[in-house]
Amino acid sequence: MLTPIFRRDRWFLFWHGAFVIPQEANELLERFLNGEIDRKQVIHAFQAEPLVNLGYATVDTQRSLRKGFPEVVFGAGKTREQVVQIAATIFDRNGRVLITRITQAHAKALRKRFRRATHHVAAACVTIQDRPLAKRPGTIAVLSAGTSDMPIAEEAAITAEFMGNRVQRIYDVGIAGLHRVLARLPEIQEANVLVVAAGMEGALPSVVAGLVSRPVIAVPTSVGYGASFGGIAALLGMLNSCGTGVTVVNIDNGFGAGYAASQINTLADENSEASVRERAIRRGKRQGRLIPQTKRRTVRKGARIRSRT
Question: What is the model's pTM?
Fold first, then answer.
């Protein structure tokens, strides 16, 4: 019997260029279940290093298998050529890639290389995909305190949308006019998780946390006057929030907030599916117990009828 050759074997010529993504993992497991390969061969396929070495960057081609989403490219500090080649490496293996913190020059180079590239100007990011991911149940609400906070809020919103989530944008609802956030309260309370971006004193996440029973991810922005210290005042205010359920990311880190919100919403979806399955199993067990009892009662009743005649 010939031993199947995996592209990720070290002695295979292009082993560094190979990868295991979720689709390939499913294929390997199917072959294992069908008896085509043994457990040792499956483990060997997963153990090879999932890397592509570009010299100036080492691309993690197994990120989507571990995290559920491919590696994301941080464009700041990289040349146009580097951004394009890294993005191409990820896109060729996953069919999608997100590039954040880009310049106009980056965007122009990416759109020239990728026909399906979409430049999100307000969020300073580019998304490229063969086809959109199916939207999972549940909504992520992204709030901004002011219009000046919108670029960071948009980075969070684009990230969450690109990862397969429904996003509700609720912008310019800062506490200087509390009635603005209260007017959107029904939409806010329907969300599974909320991302709240605010500069200045950074008070909006605390207000929102007091109105909902969902996780709140606070994003301090660098918006503000001198004593805001480039977002440090908002960061410290959010870290010292008296609102429960508030988690804080770094200053201007809309991407990190959107990514975390997607993970929380995914977990909520998985727990919901598990609950549905568990209820179905319990219902099936109850029905399974009731049916034999019904049959026994019918048989006994018939027996009594026959004995009387």
Answer: 0.76
